[in-house]
Amino acid sequence: DIVNVITKKGGKEVVNVDIFDVFEMQDKKSIAFKVTFQDPTKTLTDEEVNVSLNTIIEGIEKEFNAEIRNK
Predict the structure, then answer these.
(1) How confident is the model at residue 71 (pLDDT cuts 50, 70, 90)?
(2) Phi/psi at 42 (nearest 5 deg)?
(3) 32, 47, 55, 63: which sits with the fewest CB atoms below 10 Å from its CB?
(4) Cα–Cα distance between 7 and 17 in angstroms, integer?
(5) Gap between the Cα atoms of 14 and 34, Å rounded
């Protein structure tokens, strides 16, 4: 499922994934989620989080043939 893909693609810094909205219309589904990144040994930089987030987005697009509305 999508939470597993997010967790796998996001790496060890992904500590929580919350799906907070699902909307279905005709043959499409919109899913909104929040991802929490954390490293107990250091403060993550924007660049580190963005790399992980882009990897997550690419994984979702590939695995579910998804289109991301807002990047």
Answers:
(1) low
(2) -165, 170
(3) 47
(4) 7
(5) 11
Q: How far apart are CA 21 and CA 25, in angstroms?
A: 13
- pTM to 2 decimals? 0.87
Locate tokens 């994934």: which residue?
A: 17
Cα(16)–Cα(10) distance, integer angstroms: 10
Query: CA 65 to CA 68: how far, in whole Å?
Result: 10
Q: Specify the amino acid at residue 36.
A: T
pLDDT, tens digit, for every residue of 31-60? 999 999 999 999 999 999 999 999 999 999
Q: For residues 71 and 62, what is the distance between their CA atoms, to the nearest angstrom?
A: 15
